[in-house]
Amino acid sequence: MSTPPGEYYTAERWNNWLDRLREEEIDPESDDSARLFFNLLDDATIAIAKVITDYEDGEFEDAEAAAAEIDNIRAIVLEEVDIDDEEKLTLVDGIQTSLVCALYAAEEYIVGGPAEEGTIEQYIDAAAAAEAEEEDLDTALAHCVQAGTLVIEGDDIGLDVAEDIEYGFVADWVNGLDSLGRALSDPELVEEE
C-alpha cells in the first residue's frame, strides 16, 4: 500500500493550516484571503482524491477500508474549530461545509459507484430547487452527493452550472465538488507556505 492508513490526512496537517489562518489578516475582498480559503479546501480534497485513486488502484483490501479512510479525514476536518475571530470562523465554516459534500460523494462512490442516471447539472438543479423551494437540505445534499459521484467518475461541473446557484449550502457543496474534481484531474500537493 502506497500510503499507510491514517496518513492520507492528519490532524497535524489540518491544524497547521488553522494556525496559519489564525496568524493571517483576513479581508473578504483580498485575493490572499481567497487563496488561503481555496488552499485549505484543496489540500483536504487532494487527500480525498488520493484515497479514491488508491481504492481504484486496488491499494485497499476492500471498499470498507477505503470508506474508513474517508471517515478518518472527515473526523479531522469537520471537528469543531476554536478560533476567536468571527470572520476566520466563518471562513473555516465555509470550508467545512464545502468538504461535507466531497466527503459523502467519495464515500458513496467507493461503496456504490457513480450515479447511474442523470447528469451533474440535473442533480445540482434538483439540489438547488430542494434548498430554495422546500428548504430540504437532506434532499439537496443527497442530490449533490450523486452529482459528486459523477465528478469522481470524470465528468466536469460546467462553470455555468455553478454561476446559476443562489448562495447557500448547495453553492458551498458545489465548491467542494469542484475542488475534488480539480484534485482528481491534477492531484498536486498544496504547499502550506
Automatic annotation (TrEMBL):
Pfam family for this entry, one: DUF2150
Domain of life: Archaea
InterPro entries: UCP022079
Name used for this protein in its record: DUF2150 family protein
Source organism (scientific name): Natronomonas pharaonis (strain ATCC 35678 / DSM 2160 / CIP 103997 / JCM 8858 / NBRC 14720 / NCIMB 2260 / Gabara) (Halobacterium pharaonis)
